[in-house]
From TrEMBL, chain A:
<feature type="transmembrane region" description="Helical">
    <location>
        <begin position="159"/>
        <end position="180"/>
    </location>
</feature>
<dbReference type="InterPro" id="IPR007300">
    <property type="entry name" value="CidB/LrgB"/>
</dbReference>
<dbReference type="Pfam" id="PF04172">
    <property type="entry name" value="LrgB"/>
</dbReference>
<feature type="transmembrane region" description="Helical">
    <location>
        <begin position="41"/>
        <end position="59"/>
    </location>
</feature>
<keyword id="KW-0472">Membrane</keyword>
<feature type="transmembrane region" description="Helical">
    <location>
        <begin position="210"/>
        <end position="234"/>
    </location>
</feature>
<feature type="transmembrane region" description="Helical">
    <location>
        <begin position="7"/>
        <end position="29"/>
    </location>
</feature>
<feature type="transmembrane region" description="Helical">
    <location>
        <begin position="101"/>
        <end position="124"/>
    </location>
</feature>
<keyword id="KW-0812">Transmembrane</keyword>
UniProtKB/TrEMBL annotation, chain B:
<keyword id="KW-1133">Transmembrane helix</keyword>
<feature type="transmembrane region" description="Helical">
    <location>
        <begin position="63"/>
        <end position="80"/>
    </location>
</feature>
<keyword id="KW-0472">Membrane</keyword>
<feature type="transmembrane region" description="Helical">
    <location>
        <begin position="25"/>
        <end position="42"/>
    </location>
</feature>
<feature type="transmembrane region" description="Helical">
    <location>
        <begin position="86"/>
        <end position="109"/>
    </location>
</feature>
<keyword id="KW-0812">Transmembrane</keyword>
<dbReference type="Pfam" id="PF03788">
    <property type="entry name" value="LrgA"/>
</dbReference>
<keyword id="KW-1003">Cell membrane</keyword>
<dbReference type="InterPro" id="IPR005538">
    <property type="entry name" value="LrgA/CidA"/>
</dbReference>
């Protein structure tokens, strides 16, 4: 019989193992989420990530080795973002009818995201690097990293805060919305997309296509608004 | 299905090229989304295969964030000394942003509310 370690070394050298493990972990996490009756704190992204981190830590697998396999899943983020045009097109009549309201709401949401993140961080004594990474944290990762870099911050720290914000929004967002008694799907989607970009949009799409369409639109418009406003605001205040 | 995949990837590729070339503050895929949207408006409907592929991708959108999420956990050390300000800022700002956006939208758009747009409770 071959040694288990030998088999592991063989398997972990190919992308197949970690690709399969990523899918399996997500399936398990989704199953748990369904069984719990959709408890927000059992968000499948979060559970799957914790599961995989535990596996990587136990097997002492470095992240680049894991990403060899996981990159095939990661790659699909681009095409999926393009595909957000489809729910947007299907719901376009409703988007048009509330165009002014949604642009105003996203702009105010965008300013709130920047202002409260920097304000809270600053009042608790966060460093300049941290504030620069916190400021664009509600924006989709590539844009947020670009903004931070442009202002002289650390893009890698920004990426971490962006993903954490996404998961956080998907987990606590529905709770906040229920607490505020927001029953309008458009408002729910818009809020999740503005506050927590693609991860919030994924959550919105799972529940309702109308919410998903508004969420995807909010993600795109907030990225644009933040990319234009944040560098100006930063230079005014700092 | 192959033609739908080609169409979506082409939109993304053109999106990447346009944003790089003009230095637009948008990720390539978001520009690709705008392009695909424009094409759908011109055509006047969603081709069946494109709709099927798009729905399949979007139904599993959460899964696609898992590799990035694992990467984040591997880099939590970057949070360093500012752990407390970061935690407070992330939670406070996320709650505030969701509340402001949702309250404003549901108030501003209250007149264009259709019956099927309500009854949200998830």
């Amino acid at each position: 019989m071959t040694d288990f370690t030998e088999v592991w070394v063989y398997l972990s050298a190919s992308p197949l193992l970690f690709l399969t493990l990523t899918l399996a972990a997500f399936q398990a996490a989704s199953w748990l989420y369904q069984r719990s009756g959709h408890k927000p704190f059992l968000n499948p992204v979060m559970t799957a990530v914790i599961l995989l981190v535990a596996i990587l830590t136990l097997t002492e697998t470095p992240y680049p080795a894991y990403f060899e396999g996981a990159q095939f899943v990661h790659f699909l983020l681009g095409p999926a973002t393009v595909a957000l045009a489809i729910p947007l097109y299907r719901q376009f009549d409703r988007v048009k009818r509330s165009a002014l309201a949604l642009v105003t709401s996203i702009l105010c949401g965008s300013l709130t995201a920047i202002g409260t993140a920097v304000g809270l961080g600053w009042s608790l004594g966060a460093s300049r690097e941290t504030l620069l990474a916190l400021a664009p944290k509600s924006v989709t990762a590539p844009v947020a990293m670009g903004i931070t870099e442009q202002l002289g911050g650390l893009p890698s720290l920004t990426a971490v805060l962006v993903i954490l914000t996404g998961i956080l929004g998907a987990v606590i967002g529905p709770l906040v919305l229920n607490l505020l008694r927001i029953r309008d799907w458009r408002a729910r989607g818009l809020a999740l997309g503005t506050a927590s970009h693609g991860i919030g949009t994924a959550r919105a799409l799972q529940v309702n296509e109308l919410a998903g369409a508004f969420s995807g639109l909010a993600m795109g418009l907030n990225a644009l608004a933040t990319a234009i406003l944040l560098p100006v605001l930063w230079r005014v205040f700092f | 299905m192959l033609s739908a995949l080609t169409l979506i990837l082409t939109c993304q590729l053109i999106g990447e090229l346009v944003t790089r070339f003009f230095g637009l503050p948008l990720p390539g895929p978001v520009a690709g989304m705008a392009l695909l949207f424009a094409l759908l408006v011109i055509r006047g409907s969603v081709p069946e295969t494109v709709g099927a592929l798009g729905d399949a991708l979007l139904k599993n959108l959460s899964l696609l964030f898992v590799p990035a999420g694992v990467g984040v956990m591997a880099h939590l050390g970057l949070l360093g000394q500012d752990l407390l300000p970061i935690a407070v800022a992330l939670i406070g700002s996320t709650v505030a942003t969701i509340a402001v956006t949702a309250l404003l939208m549901s108030w501003l758009a209250r007149n264009s509310l259709s019956p099927e747009a309500t009854k949200a409770d998830d």
